[in-house]
Specification:
The complex is a heterodimer of chains A (about 450) and B (about 290).
Chain A (H helix, E strand, L loop, with lengths): L1 H26 L30 E10 L6 H20 L3 E2 L5 E10 L4 H13 L5 E3 L4 H13 L3 E4 L15 E3 L9 H10 L4 E7 L2 H16 L3 E8 L7 H10 L3 E5 L2 H14 L5 E5 L17 E5 L9 H6 L3 E2 L4 H12 L5 H20 L4 H9 L3 E3 L2 E3 L17 E7 L5 E7 L16
Parallel strand pairs in A: 1-3, 1-4, 4-5, 5-6, 7-8, 7-9, 9-10, 10-11, 12-13
Antiparallel strand pairs in A: 2-3, 11-15, 13-14, 15-16
Helix pairs in contact in A: 2-11, 3-4, 11-12
Chain B lengths: L1 H34 L6 H18 L8 H20 L7 H23 L12 E4 L2 E4 H23 L1 H11 L1 H6 L4 H23 L10 H15 L4 H21 L4 H16 L10
Antiparallel strand pairs in B: 1-2
Classes of the chains: A alpha/beta (about 450), B mainly alpha (about 290).
Chain lengths: ~450, ~290
């Protein structure tokens, strides 16, 4: 018995050694093809170290990010990753980027499931930089997760292009490598308040938002703007991210006498809140929620979706154009919104939301910076990003370069969209503000249930 | 005055929801009472009940209340399977073994559920309107859910006290060895009890799905509430769980009238700890 156990253990150890030996080469693909062994130096410095090379070199740049395949950020995160993946596939298919020294740069990405968990994000971004050799990073989806990633990126002096993250605070910590694509959270609701001022300047506002980094930042940002525009804030209430029963909150809204609801947070809580508002029929004239209504799945709520408005970072109906870039003195780069939308729909079967457009735009901005820098060197790319004054179909891209708020987006505008029904009774997300890009009048007041 | 009106508006909601919480907790506490097993797969089974309503109503067009019957049968059978696969072999082992076994089942269901349904929210677009009651609108879906919860509790009571298998369950609860000596087939009775517990979880999930959007992880919150209710109503006291559910529902109605709703879980779980310290067997006493 004892002997057979020893034999078994010996065989087990032998098998492990053989498997380890055979497995070694297979471990390499986990690190990207052509990527150097993980060092503190960025991948981009590899070509500079071999100036004697005569033939054009192929260089593969690894871009790292985490995605929320599970958890509360899943819906929006997956769309963001879809958009980014489409960009990567297209740029590689087009032959990558050819630098002036003949180096052909292509891209690959490394990603892990962060489970919508900030602690996982910190672990995984450390791994992406130190073990997977990621030269550039794209943010996860949501401000909370991005905040966690930004600390790791900054500690490792790696560029992090943030998309799907609007909170302002991360850019006010003396960073040098963060670059934000979204309109900052503090300005998120401004266009909506401007629209409401035209529609109903005497409206009473309830501000009900998820107790999370992004939505709290948005709420804090809009309060002075509401006050400056003469709106009375009759209720301010935050709720936990996993709240399912919004009955007591909706009762508070009803009791406050509010006619306008501004608030929400992310997808899961936003859908639950929209449904609670509909079920209770509290007499609101207008309801605006963050994030959730921008998703194409939102009409699955049925009539509860009707009239719900959202700020959108991008909508195809109000996509930005080369002519617009010329008018405002910005460089134009990338495909048109229509081309992006058609390619996205062909790839994924769904029309793109702004989350997907943001993911694609993150790739475009990095691509443009590498072209401008004519290098994949981190410092050169950083300098190109700092000097960027670009317009893509996603909108303007220009970063604050001050020490106080480095990387904060200062050129991107938002639109206000609202779920309405078309003549056939089908749900349609229409643009209702600003007036110069609106495709429909606002539904105001929203119909009583 | 405003807080009083808010309180009056939130109370009916809290009470009605409390009945449904009670059914969820009844399942947990029944299993604990009969076999001293804390079923950590309770939450995902609640979620499966929610998905049951979704598929029966959205995909098959059957009224969600009629759909409760197949959901209940599914919950019962699933519980029996879980019992024989994961619990039976560790039923006499230390509590940690059964805790780990049911935790493993919990992870398996969540993993499979995530693969099949993702963690995106699902919505059962089912509305029956409501009626005005002073300061608030009471939704018919909640009223009907509360009535069903009371009916389920009544049926459970009758089953436990008026039927032979029910009496067997009570006998096994009181003294398994003595019951076996009297010819009670304890293995089958334990499997039946586990199945009844999961059936109650699935029914509560199916009812909750008519109120709120959900995903495969949503049951976790109700599992935690079930622990609080179990302590409030008396650990191992299934009918007491209904009272515990009512108390929790009332708290959820009262607290937001005076404090930010973010305080609700803080107070609920604070209460949980205090009761455990002061009356470890729960306010309404332990199993009889």
């Amino acid at each position: 018995m004892k002997r057979s156990l020893v034999t078994f253990l010996s065989l087990l150890i032998l098998a492990s050694l053989i498997l380890t030996a055979c497995g070694a080469p297979e471990g390499v693909p986990e690190a990207p093809v052509n990527a150097p062994a993980p060092t503190d130096e960025p991948v981009a410095e590899a070509p500079a170290a071999a100036p004697e090379a005569t033939a054009p070199e192929a260089q593969t740049v690894v871009i790292g990010f985490t995605s929320s395949l599970t958890g509360s950020q899943e819906v929006s995160s997956k769309r963001q990753v879809n958009g980014f993946s489409l960009w990567l596939e297209q740029v590689n298919k087009a032959g990558g980027i050819t630098l002036s020294d003949g180096t052909v740069v292509s891209f690959e990405y490394q990603t892990y499931d962060d489970e919508s968990n900030a602690e996982r994000v910190q672990e995984l971004y450390t791994r992406l930089i130190n073990e997977d050799g990621a030269s550039f990073l794209i943010s996860p989806y949501s401000s909370g997760l991005t905040s966690a990633a930004s600390i790791v990126a900054e500690q490792n002096e790696t560029i992090l292009i943030t998309t799907g993250a609007a909170d302002d605070d991360a850019y006010k910590t003396g960073n040098s490598g963060l670059f934000q694509l979204y309109t900052p959270g503090s300005l998120y609701m401004s266009s909506t308040v401007d629209m409401l001022k035209q529609l109903d300047p005497g409206a009473k506002v309830a501000l009900v938002y998820e107790a999370a980094k992004f939505s709290t930042g948005v709420a804090e940002g809009i309060k002075p703007y509401l006050e400056a525009n003469g709106f009375e804030l009759v209720l301010e209430e935050s709720y936990a991210s996993d709240t399912a029963d919004f009955g007591p909150i909706v009762n508070k809204i009803a009791g406050s006498g509010a006619t306008i609801l501004l608030g929400g947070g992310h997808y899961n809580d936003g859908t639950a809140l929209a449904r609670a508002i509909y079920d209770r029929n509290v007499g609101l004239k207008f309801a605006y929620l963050l994030v959730a209504p921008a998703d194409t799945k939102f009409p699955e709520l049925g009539d509860a979706a009707l009239g719900i408005a959202v700020s959108s970072q991008w909508e195809l109906a109000a996509t930005h154009t080369e002519a617009e870039a010329g008018n405002v003195g910005m460089d134009w780069f990338g495909p048109t919104g229509e081309d992006f939308s058609a390619a996205y729909e062909a790839a994924y079967g769904d029309p793109p939301t702004y989350h997907a457009a943001g993911g694609y735009a993150a790739g475009l901005v990095l691509q443009n910076a590498i072209i401008t820098a004519d290098s994949t060197d981190s410092e050169a790319v950083k300098a190109a990003l700092n000097a960027m004054n670009l317009m893509t179909f996603f909108g303007g891209t220009k970063f604050d370069t001050s020490e106080e708020a480095h990387g904060l987006q200062i050129a991107h505008d938002m639109v206000v969209a609202q779920w309405q029904k078309d003549d056939a009774g089908e749900f349609d997300l229409v643009i209702v503000a600003p007036a110069d890009v609106a495709t429909a009048d606002p539904l105001y007041p929203i119909p009583a249930q | 005055m405003q807080q009083l009106s808010l309180l009056l508006a939130s109370l009916p909601d809290g009470v009605l929801l409390g009945f449904v919480y009670g059914v969820a907790a009844m399942g947990l506490t029944l299993i604990w009472g009969v076999m001293d097993v804390i079923n950590l797969s309770h939450g995902p089974i609640i979620s499966l009940g929610m998905f049951g309503t979704f598929f029966i109503f959205i995909r098959m067009g059957v009224n969600p209340y009629l759909g409760l019957i197949p959901v209940a049968i599914f919950g019962l059978l699933l519980g029996v399977v879980i019992y024989f696969v994961a619990v039976h072999r560790v039923i006499n082992a230390p509590h940690l073994s059964s805790l780990l076994a049911t935790f493993a089942v919990n992870m398996i269901i969540i993993g499979l559920g995530t693969a099949a349904f993702t963690t995106s929210p699902y919505n059962v677009d089912f509305s029956m309107g409501g009626f005005s009651l002073g300061f608030t609108t009471v939704l018919w879906t909640r009223v009907i859910a509360a009535v069903i919860a009371i009916a389920v509790t009544g049926a459970l009571y009758l089953f436990l006290f008026r039927t032979r298998p029910g009496k067997y369950i009570r006998a096994v609860t009181n003294n398994r060895s003595a019951a076996e000596l009297m010819g009670v087939p304890s293995t089958q009775i334990l499997a039946l009890s586990f199945g009844l517990g999961t059936m109650l979880a699935a029914i509560s999930g199916a009812l909750i799905a008519t109120f709120f959007p959900f995903n495969i992880l949503s049951g976790g919150g109700y599992e935690l509430k079930s622990f609080v209710i179990g302590v409030l109503g008396g650990l191992g006291n299934p009918v007491g769980a209904l009272y515990g559910g009512l108390i929790l529902g009332l708290l959820e109605g009262i607290i937001p009238a005076f404090l930010n709703t973010s305080w609700v879980p803080v107070i609920e779980f604070g209460l949980f700890v205090v009761i455990l310290l002061v009356r470890p067997n729960g306010i309404l006493g332990a199993k009889k």
